[in-house]
Design a protein that fits this description.
Layout (H helix, E strand, L loop, with lengths): L10 E2 L2 E2 L15 H5 L1 H5 L13 H30 L3 H25 L4 H5 L14 H9 L15 H12 L3 H11 L6 H4 L14 H9 L5 H32 L11 H7 L6 H9 L3
Helix pairs in contact: 3-4, 3-6, 3-8, 4-11, 6-7, 10-13, 11-12
């Protein structure tokens, strides 16, 4: 048999036959490109280096795709929070499970940007001006939803009314963790009233009185399976977030070393300090209390 013979699967001369039922006329039908608005999407990559540097497109695509994934992460986390508020725990966990897969994709994406060498980046870095990932309002909104509130961050977005409004709303809304604790309280767990009544515009800080509550859950997982499973899903979220932060740091170190960031930060040292931030500290502290 040669490569030019029909092998019975619609392939001839290494060419696949188009089935008669395949739609080819889109003069009055919705197409793939139309549904996704590809003309708009694919025209949004506009390198500004002159002459245009080959690697600037990589830099733009990397950050634009990150923003698309962050849009979905925010969508899922906000929905999960709403579902927890409505006591729909199983459905909330489905949203969180999806976020975990997105987080893995976001972390793996850094390996693509890491192919950008210092000498390549240096050839177009100057055109960024003060643009920096620090100014990603969607990233900041995700942090707010997870409880790492920071009211002073809103000043970065005063020139963008929509971004400022989104972050103001998220600042003033209970976090995902707040809603989980409120759900636990509604189902009989002894969550301290002071925790339930806390100022949700403030960053979450370690609450030692919660550790015994979680210790009881972890001491009998069969009796507290739903709460236990949710605790572990939240730990997964934080672990994945920290891995993303770490990969970001190492990519920055690999490309610019110890140079300051374009947005005015100290660069790698600033990113390193972010690794000390936490979302659910009691869920880590409880591990010390588990016998064995």
């Amino acid at each position: 048999m040669t490569g030019h013979e029909d092998v019975g699967d619609g392939i001839q001369a290494n060419t696949r036959t188009i089935e008669a039922s395949v739609v080819t006329d889109f003069s009055d039908r919705m197409s793939y490109g139309g549904y996704l608005d590809l003309p708009t999407l694919l025209s949004a990559q506009r390198p500004i280096s002159r002459p245009e540097h080959h690697d600037e497109l990589l830099f733009i695509v990397q950050h634009q795709t990150t923003e698309l994934w962050l849009k979905l992460v925010l969508h899922e986390l906000e929905t999960a929070r709403d579902l927890l508020r409505d006591d729909q725990l199983a459905r909330a966990l489905k949203c969180i499970a999806r976020v975990k897969h997105i987080q893995k994709t976001l972390t793996e994406q850094w390996s693509v940007l890491a192919t950008l060498t210092p000498s390549e980046y240096a050839q177009f870095r100057g055109v960024l001006g003060n643009a920096s990932g620090f100014q990603s309002y969607q990233y900041r909104a995700v942090e707010f939803v997870l409880g790492n509130k920071h009211a002073r961050m809103l000043s970065v977005f005063e020139s963008d009314p929509d971004a400022h409004a989104l972050l103001t709303r998220e600042l003033e809304t209970p976090s995902l963790y707040d809603e989980f604790l409120r759900l636990l309280a509604r189902t009989g767990y002894p969550i301290p009233q002071a925790v339930l009544d806390r100022d949700v515009t403030k960053a979450w800080t370690f609450q030692p009185e919660l550790v015994p509550v979680f210790a009881a859950i972890y001491s009998d997982t069969d009796a507290h399976w739903a709460a236990y499973e949710t605790c572990e899903e939240l730990v997964d979220l934080e672990d994945n977030f920290q891995l993303w932060r770490f990969r970001h740091l190492k990519t920055v170190e690999r490309i610019i070393g110890s140079k300051p960031g374009t947005g005015g930060s100290s660069g790698a040292p600033f990113l390193k300090r972010a690794l000390e931030l936490t979302f659910f500290p009691e869920l880590y502290a409880v591990r010390t209390e588990i016998p064995g």
